[in-house]
Amino acid sequence: MSSADLVTPAVPVERILAGSQLVVRYAVYRHHGIYAGRGRVIHYAGWIRGRRGLVEETTLDDFTEGRGFWVSASPADAAVGLAIVHRARSRLGERRYHLLENNCEHFCTWCQAESARSLQVELMAKPLRLLLTVIQGMFSLLERPRPCGAGADQEAA
Q1: From CA 45, how far away is CA 114, in angstroms rounded?
Q2: What does the alpha-carbon distance between residue 1 and residue 21 come to, in Å, rounded to a whole number?
Q3: What is the CATH number of domain 3-141?
Q4: Of the candidates 54, 63, 56, 55, which has an alpha carbon nearest to the alpha carbon of residue 13?
Q5: Per-residue pLDDT tens for 68-89?
Q6: Which residues, other chains included, contact 108 with Cβ-Cβ below 8 Å and sequence gap of 6+?
Q7: Helix axes 78-89, 104-113, angle to 10 degrees
């Protein structure tokens, strides 16, 4: 993110293209939404916001909760932006939120590129995959068969 992408009160919201992906930073995560134009945002509310994983259209103020935000991706032109907003609106009311498989970032990338992806989840998953690989390696060492002669002489005696 560059400082040019940060939206401050001095930048008019009217300059943001419909279909742009907006991001709000929280302490441990970033919340994503699709700008629908006219001060409206479509987003997966998730579980934290108390709306039980609902795709909803809300005001920009409600979406940001008074926090700063930036535009992480903008459509090439207005026609592409309208198609993105149309895809976002096609899922209004959906309640299939899943933190790791279908979150607000997955929703936004699907709206923009028709391919759901969450960089936050992917970055979080790398250390977890490494830890699981190490644990799996440790178990495989413990499960290795002992050499044929080991322990056999003691059992016969």
Answers
A1: 20
A2: 13
A3: 3.90.1720.10
A4: 63
A5: 999 988 999 999 999 999 999 9
A6: 21, 32, 33, 34, 43
A7: 130
